[in-house]
Amino acid sequence: MTQLDTTPKLGRKRDLTRDPEILEATLQILAETGYDGMTIDMVATRAKAGKATLYRRWASKSELVIDAVACMKSADIDFDALPDTGTLRGDLLAMVKPHTIEESARKLQVMAGLVSMLSRHPELADAVRDAVMGPRVRINRLFLQRAIDRGEIPADVDIELLSQVGGAMATHRTLLLRKPVDRAFMLSVIDDVILPACGIRRER
C-alpha cells in the first residue's frame, strides 16, 4: 500500500473568485494570529460561512491558506498604469502612496503569519514569496531598466539585486525588528540605499 501524500499541492485548478469573503477572512486571520493560531472555525466565523462549506472546498487548513495567498497575488498592481516620471527617483517615489504602503504592510504581516507553515513545507516558499514580494520586485526591475535605457544609470547596475533590496529590508524590519514600514522608512531606502547603489547622489 502506498503512503498517502498529505503535503499541500500548488497549482490546483480552482476558480479563486468564487469565495472572496472566505479567502479575505483567511488573510486577515493569518496576519492577526499566524498559521498555527488560525483555525477553520475562526475563518468560518469571520466569513459568516459554515465550517462544512469550507471543508467541501478545501480539504485542509494548508490548502485554504495556499489559495488565499494565490488570491492575494491575483490583486497585483496594473503594470500598464505604472508611473513614468522620467527619473528613477520620481518613479520610485510615485509608488510611495498611503494605499501602497498599507498593502505592502498587509502582505508582510501575512508573510509573518506563514513563517511556521513554511518551516514545515519549504516547497511552498516560492509560491508565498512570489505572491508577497513578486509584484514589487517586478515593478522595481521595470523602473531600473527604464533608467538604464535613458542613460540615467550605468548599464552594468545589478538590476536583479537592487530590485529586491527594498522588499528585503522591509521584510527584515517587519519580521525581525517589529517596526512599521512607513513612508519615512521607504524614502530612506530609496534615497540612502537604492539610488546611491545606482550611482545617483541626492543633493542635500
How would you sum up this structure in a few lines?
The chain has 204 residues and is an all-alpha fold. It has helices at 20-37, 40-47, 51-57, 61-74, 88-94, 98-113, 115-120, 125-132, 134-149, 159-175, 183-197.
Describe this structure in words.
This protein has 204 residues and is mostly helical. It has 2 domains: 14-75, Orthogonal Bundle (Arc Repressor Mutant, subunit A), CATH 1.10.10; 76-204, Tetracycline Repressor, domain 2 (Orthogonal Bundle), CATH 1.10.357.10. The protein is built from 11 helices and no strands. The chain has helices spanning 20-37, 40-47, 51-57, 61-74, 88-94, 98-113, 115-120, 125-132, 134-149, 159-175, 183-197. Helix 1 (20-37) crosses helix 6 (98-113), helix 6 packs across helix 10 (159-175) and helix 10 runs antiparallel to helix 11. The radius of gyration is 19 Å and the shape is elongated. The N and C termini lie far apart (71 Å).
Structural features:
11 helices, Arc Repressor Mutant, subunit A, Tetracycline Repressor, domain 2, disordered N terminus, 2 domains, elongated, single chain, about 200 residues
Topology:
Layout: H1 20-37, H2 40-47, H3 51-57, H4 61-74, H5 88-94, H6 98-113, H7 115-120, H8 125-132, H9 134-149, H10 159-175, H11 183-197
CATH-defined architecture of the largest domain = Orthogonal Bundle
Structural class by secondary-structure content? mainly alpha
- What percentage of amino acids are in beta strands? under 5%
The average pLDDT is 81
What is the approximate shape? elongated
State the separation between the terminal residues, measured CA to CA: 71 Å
The beta-strand count equals 0
Spans of at least 5 consecutive residues whose pLDDT stays below 50 are: 1-6, 10-17
Helix content: 55-70%
**CATH domain class name of the largest domain:** Mainly Alpha
According to CATH, the homologous superfamily of the largest domain is: Tetracycline Repressor, domain 2
User: Radius of gyration, rounded?
Assistant: 19 Å
Order of helices and strands: HHHHHHHHHHH
Biggest sheet features: none
Domains, number: 2
